[in-house]
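User: Sequence in, structure out. Go.
Assistant: Echoing your sequence, followed by the structure tokens.
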Amino acid sequence: MANVSVYNTDGKEVGTIELNDAVFGVELNEHLVHMAVVAQLANKRQGTQKAKTRSEVSGGGRKPWRQKGTGHARQGSTRSPQWKGGGVVFAPTPRDYTITLNKKEKRQALRCALSSRVQEQKFIVLESFELSEVKTKKMAETLKNLKVQKALVVAPENDKTTVLSARNIAGVKTASPKTINVYDILKYNTVVTSKDVVATIEEVYA
């Protein structure tokens, strides 16, 4: 099992914690992680874009001029794509972008992402967040003491104090153990959490 240092809010090491290899020590499967990120981004898309093709634009039923003898190129409709007000070539239509992954694949991709952060020493564990009130300044100081700029802060479930304290800091996003995802873990350089949250993550994803 991997051992990770535990820090206090001043950025000083106060101990170590043993991580469960079933969650934080799995072998990296890049293809599976890539699939999970692609699926997440695709599933965010609304797929409601729409433009009209030449058959859907109103008007243009009459031939604008006779076929021959005018000196113009031949035209069959004023709603052809080359005309102003004409239809769009290969116009986008509403579609469903959903990509489905199996539950086991999703969980394993998440384990891979967490394990990669541990291996890269970008998984920081705090003894606790120690926030008695909503204070952005206090949270910013804690992250500065940990020498972290772009971070995913994984706070305990329903911990509004930590969430509200971190939400106005640039480059910082908060999540709970049950809402973390592969894309956010990879997007933000460092994962910052606490000992009790680590125990919850191991319980949920082991």
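User: And one key feature?
Assistant: The first strand starts at residue 3 and ends at 7.
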